[in-house]
Every structure is written in C-alpha cells, then in structure tokens.
Amino acid sequence: MIRITVWNEYVHERTEQKIAEVYPEGIHAAIAEFLGKEEDFEVRTATLDDENCGITKEVLAETDVLIWWGHIAHDRVPDEIAYLVRDAVLEGMGLICLHSAHHSKPFRYLLGTSCNLTWRESDDEEILWVIEPSHPITRGIDRYFKLSHEETYGEPFVIPTPDKLLLIGHYSGGEVFRSGCLYERGNGKIFYLQPGHESYPTFRVPEIQMLIRNAIRYLAPAYRQVTACPHVRKITDNAPYVI
Amino acid sequence: MIRITVWNEYVHERTEQKIAEVYPEGIHAAIAEFLGKEEDFEVRTATLDDENCGITKEVLAETDVLIWWGHIAHDRVPDEIAYLVRDAVLEGMGLICLHSAHHSKPFRYLLGTSCNLTWRESDDEEILWVIEPSHPITRGIDRYFKLSHEETYGEPFVIPTPDKLLLIGHYSGGEVFRSGCLYERGNGKIFYLQPGHESYPTFRVPEIQMLIRNAIRYLAPAYRQVTACPHVRKITDNAPYVI
Amino acid sequence: MIRITVWNEYVHERTEQKIAEVYPEGIHAAIAEFLGKEEDFEVRTATLDDENCGITKEVLAETDVLIWWGHIAHDRVPDEIAYLVRDAVLEGMGLICLHSAHHSKPFRYLLGTSCNLTWRESDDEEILWVIEPSHPITRGIDRYFKLSHEETYGEPFVIPTPDKLLLIGHYSGGEVFRSGCLYERGNGKIFYLQPGHESYPTFRVPEIQMLIRNAIRYLAPAYRQVTACPHVRKITDNAPYVI
Amino acid sequence: MIRITVWNEYVHERTEQKIAEVYPEGIHAAIAEFLGKEEDFEVRTATLDDENCGITKEVLAETDVLIWWGHIAHDRVPDEIAYLVRDAVLEGMGLICLHSAHHSKPFRYLLGTSCNLTWRESDDEEILWVIEPSHPITRGIDRYFKLSHEETYGEPFVIPTPDKLLLIGHYSGGEVFRSGCLYERGNGKIFYLQPGHESYPTFRVPEIQMLIRNAIRYLAPAYRQVTACPHVRKITDNAPYVI
Lengths: 243, 243, 243, 243
What we know:
4 copies of one chain form a homotetramer. By secondary structure, chain A is α/β, with parallel strands linked by helices. The first copy, chain A, has helices at 12-15, 17-22, 27-35, 57-61, 79-91, 105-111, 206-219, and strands at 2-8, 41-47, 65-69, 94-98, 118-130, 144-154, 164-171, 176-185, 188-193. In chain A, strands 2-1-3-4-9-8-7-5-6 form a 9-stranded mixed beta sheet. In chain A, strand 3 (65-69), helix 5 and strand 4 (94-98) form a beta-alpha-beta unit. In chain A, helix 5 crosses helix 6 (105-111). Chain A is globular. The mean pLDDT of chain A is 97. Chains in contact: A-B, A-C, A-D, B-C, B-D, C-D.
C-alpha cells in the first residue's frame, strides 16, 4: 500500500466562480478521486485551512508520497510546516509539486533557488514531449500528448539542473518549458510537473493522471531514515563506529 | 590566439544546385568567413576530400577547437580519423558539432549512444530559447531568437543527459529539441548546436554566429594532456609516483 | 524471472596456477554460483572461447542483465560483438562491468572516454564507503565494508561524470577511487563496480555478492525498445506521426 | 580586479588559546593575507560581530566572490543575512564555503539538504586526490597532496550530487570524503572545500592557497543579474516581451 497525502491550498476554488466550476470540490478532491481508484494507493487530503495546514510530523511519517498544489497563498504556509516537509523528503518521503507549486516553500527550500520562471495566461495549447521514453514516470505515455489550454510557463526556469529531465512543454504562443523534472535530495525524490493551472481541467486528462500515478509509484520509498551528523570512532577501534 | 579548424563534408554544396545557392563556397567557408573577422581567432578549413579528410594527428595538435559539419557522408570518414578526433578531445581539444553532425562518428564515439532523433523537412520556423542566461556560451543572446526556417529535429534525442543544457528549440510544427548541449569528456569539452541545415542560410544569422564564437572561446583549452593509465608506486615509496 | 548472462574472458584462471586456485572453475562460475541461489534469477555463462564469444543478438535479446569480466584479452573481443552489447544496452538491457572491465570494449564504447586509471598490485586493504545509502544498489550494505586485499585503482579515472556515484574506495596505500558508478544510456543502465581482481576471492565476499544482486534487480529493464531515427509528419497531419 | 570578501565567524580564535596560536589574527586574516598578494584581487574581511555580520546588500553588490568560514555560531547568523547571500549567489556572485561551513546557513539554504556528514577529531593525515585534472580549480595541483593533520569528515555527506566533483579526500583513519564540490545555482557558482579545521594551519598550505585562488578566479562572475519571474506577452505581440 502506498500512502499518499494530497495537499492543496484550496483558495481559488472557494473564491472564484470560474474556478469553482472546474474543480467544485477543490483540486485536491479531483486528484484524490482518480488516485483512489488504484488498489495499491491509500489517499488522504489536507488543505491550508486545516489545523497546522493538515501537515504534522505524524502525518508525514505515515505519508509515502506527498502531492502539493499551491499558488496565491504560499506565504500562508508557516516555515515550520515547510521545514517538516523538507526534512521528511530528506528522510525518504516522495514529493510531487504541481504547476504553481514551483514557488511553494517546500519546493524552494529543497532546491535552494528562486524557482522563478516567465508566465502568461493566454489559453495557449501545450504539447508535452517525452524526453526519456524508458523512465518509469513516462511509461505508457506516447511520444507526446496535448493539453488544449494551459497557462504558459517559460524559460529561464531558475532551478538546479534536474537530475533527470523527463518532459519538455511546447506552447502555441512560442515558449518551451522543462515541464517534468526529477530530483534526488537526501534519501528522497522530488518530481516537478508543470501542467495543472486552476482554470483548466488538466487533472482530468488521462496522460496527466498517468504521469502522477507513475510518479507516485516511482517516488514511494523502500527505505526511510534520517541521515544524521554523527561523531564517529576510528574504524579500527573495535567499538561501534557511530558514537 | 585560438586555433580553429572548420571541417565540412562538403558534398551537398557541390551536388545540389539549391544548396550551392545558399553556400556557394561550402558551409565551411561560410563559417570560416565570420570567424575570420575575430582578432583572436586563427581559422583553417578541412573537408572530406582532402587527404586524410584533412585531419591528422599534427593538425589536431595545432587545433584548439574543431568544428564539425557532416550529413550524408558520415560513413566515408574512416574510423581511424574519428578516433584521432576523439582522442584529441579527451586530451583537451574543444569540439563543436553542428546540426546533422549529431550522427557524425566523432560525436557518436565520444558520447557512446546512437544520437538518434526524429526529423522532418517542412520549413518550420524555429524559436531558440536560452535556458542558462549566465553561461559564457549564451552570453549576449536575448531570451530567445528566431530562425525563419530550419529542419525540424524532435525528441527523444538519444544522448547522455547533457552536463549542461543551454538551449531548447521550439518548432512551429509542434516539436521541441535540446538544441544546445554541453559535455565534458576527459580533459575536453564538446558543444552540440542543432541549427544549421544545408538548405537554409542559418550560419549567416547573427545569433548563430555569436553562439559559435562564444562556444569557441569557452571550449578552447588552457590545458592539454593525455591522461594515461600508469602503473604507480605506493606514495610512501619516496620515488616518483608514476612508474 | 530476471535473465542474467555472466561473461568472462576466462584466461587467467586457465593459464596461471595462482589464479586457478582462487577461481578453479573461472570467475564466471563463481559469480553464477551465488547468483544461482536466487529464485528470481535465471543464470547462464559465456566466455571468450565460445563461438562468437557466446554473445549473439539472440543471446542478448534473452538477457536482461549482462555481467562482464575481462582483463588481458579485451582486444580479442571483436568490435562487432562489442557493438551488439552496446546496442542492447541502448535498447534497455542492463550491463554490469566488473573491475578490469573498465577497459572492456562494451564499457568504453558506451562511455566514449578512455576509462584509464592508475593502478598497482600491492595487496592493499580496501575499505568501500557507501555514498548513497538509500539507493537500491547499496541497500543492505552498512556504512562501509572491507576487502582484506584488492588491486589498487586510483584517480583520475577518465570517465564521464557518473549519473550517480554510489561507492568510493579507500586503499591502505593512500589512493581513493570512484568504485561504484551508475550510468543511464539510451533506454539502458550501466553499473561499474571496481572490486574483483582475479587473484583475490573478492566474489566470495558477502557484500560484493549483495551489491551485484542488488544491481541486477535495479538494472533489469521493464521496457526494451530501439529508439530509432524516424522521419516524422507534422502532428497536425491526421496521420501516424512516424512515417 | 576581483573583489573578495572573506567572512569568518571569528569565535574559536578569540576564546581558545590553542586555536589563537594557530591563527592569532583569525582565520579571515590568514586567508586575506595570502589572497592580498595577488595583483588582481581586492580583499576585505567581515566577521560575525561586525554590524549586520558585515554583510549588507551593498557589500554583496561589491563582492565578486564571498568566502565563508563558520563552525559553532552558524545560528547566530540571522536568516535575513543568509538570504542576502543566497540571493547574491543566484544573481551571479561566487561563494566558497570552507570546511565546517558545510553547515552554514548560506550553504544549506542554497543546496536545500541537511549537509550532514560524519566527523572525528583524531589528527588523521589526509591525502587529497584530484579527480578532474583539467578543471581550472585544480590547475597546478599535482595528482595528490597531503595535509599532515585534518579533522576527519566522512560519508555519507548529505548534499545534492555535485555538478562537478573535483577532489576526494583519503584519511589515515579509513574514511573518504567528497572534499571539493562544485555547484551552479541560478547565475552563480558555489565551491565547497573540505580542509580548514581551526586547530591546524591548513590555510598556510600552498596547495590549499592555490585551490582557493583558482576557485576565486573561476567563480568570479562576468555577468550578474536577477532572474525574476516576469509576466510576459506573446512573442507575436510586437511589444516588449516582458510586461
């Protein structure tokens, strides 16, 4: 059983009529719905307005993969919560950051850069191209797939060079973007997936759902352990190495 | 003084009227022409029909950066010549592979993969986006520039993950491509630049010329040495380490 | 079932008494023996003196992971055989290169560099340190383990920067070495493991056996496909993309 | 002229007699002294007790490369100061973190991981091996050099895979360590160098001085610019791209 927590700031859907029509129960509910159909997935959700944002040390200890969606309320997530997420990833937990979560605290604190990008809302069509066809995350996706409308994200995207670049997006307005980026940090893995703007039903697109399912199975840790900073003995001391 | 050798198979330009009109003296001459305007560059050219393809151990020893263009005659370059180029790169020489040189022997032998890609000739417009604005190779290039027509290259491009991805191309036909890829191999550096199809005047575009000039200056070695496989002594032996 | 082929040049063991005492049936037999105890492994062996070195397109098509040991007879492996191995890896087959196979044709042709290193036979003790404790290949290995004697390999090791560095070796004579290096090339993965000199019973050490078992399970492909160089249509053409 | 600021927490040298004997004027003064002999270097120092730790936006704007040494007072550097350093690096400033600065705020905030390691003070001898002999930072260093005593640092070192691993340390107590690690983040570069414990005269060793001088020249930016997150127009709009 892979234990998944879907986190959503859940602001747009409750304050803007147009967004509510796309995701009436919230983006987290839409994601949890299609994930809930998998027999090996156990899904719960959490949102900004939950106590402690729904993120505690205990919740993270029971989460194999955390999915994060946020946009206009990144700053309302306390640093302490973001540090808990960061530390859980370094311990082994998987983290999937969706779309505007490029600017979320957990993503920025783990990558260390500004994660800035260029952007435009102009109903561009996006074509997503698979760069690594044999990777477990892109398995089952054809050479490319289309999203009829997405928010345009453009380069430069101020991130560390991804450990593996899996997808590049092509926008009808002329931009390109590193749309699927994989990182390993500490004992954990992080996957950034660019599509998922609140005003389009992107999370109902079969290929997007497949990418998220694949990523969950790839990021779920077999091993989870804090790698501390121990004082050690000489290995010739005939005593435990770590003091 | 940076010593540059521009190698071109020089077949299309002598056998196809349409290509001859674009590059009457050959692609190598067009490249040598704009490079020759730089005071710190010393440029010579070599082509497939020269004796030994114009590539000998001596020529490579006096070449800081080798530029390579080839397309339909890759197989007519003897393996021995390709190995000389490979070994010169491992020693420190810079290598710039242009466009269809993705399938050239020197490039494939140095990268080890098939370097396959998808392709189409359909007069697509290409927009090239800078991914790393602070890199010496992209210095002076704006966020993007356009080529009114280029051959379309598409992913997957079967290369090792580039040490640094500098440019991504966006084609009006829908494709994207990793158009500027930097590698370090042994003591040398390799830059792959995708634009440069024989039927378009790409090498007359100012930004393409700037990228090639920048790449030459970045790839020119300060150090050149064969890293051999020496039998060594214990470092406590009070004798030279390498036997 | 993971199908494994263990290839060994099998020269030392038949020509040197001292080596024959360590590996009377050959290194390949010693490796096949401990691998044969795994229920999910199906193991066969091949050696230099077999017809076609025991390596044909058919054998490779039925091999999920190929293990390669060679030392003094690298040149007796025909290029055609090495190319078959290379192409199978690009298609998805896993390749584990052991010890002196750093200079084998399949390894060099896939990595493109000289793979030179410094070396000494002086019965050094080696301590192998785990750099990535959460990686599937190092799973189950403690922080370090010792080999009472190994051939000393030293830096610089002329390889492309590994996609992931898993182990570093520490020799009592003073050297260090990147002893466990992971690469992805095309659709396949390559693991280089430094220990395994013919004159020491390294392949009987439990941690070495565990690393090889782990690597086999990590490298076994779920997907295997030639990524060709197709001529493609415009994606708007309402016809199959690949021509 | 390359403008260098050497930052030191300057606590050990003022509170421990033994350390004061090694660096009577402080580690920053010892570093500034040998750097001051270079004609193209302009050096200033700053310490924890200076107003604002001696680090303001103005100071960083006039600093090409910042050198950082800290150990027991990392937490006394306010987050705001660490963020200024981080942002200056993303803009293009070079950052050299020495020894125990692996746990400094600027280093951890830029890399995102815990930067934990194992450690022991046991007067081990350290041998430092050059992994990349052609890199500008290791230029002039032989295959290896020795430090008669250094604090032992051991793996796992919880850092992102370095963009380039330049040095590996070998300790007489048995450990190994990734002792020279290069990163690119945003428009800036970061170099981590492991030697430099407060109780040994490491910064008086010629090879250490050479590595630091080389690193300064390699990290000094030719270009410095904030890469922001601009709202952009369609590139067909015949208006400035960035709104």
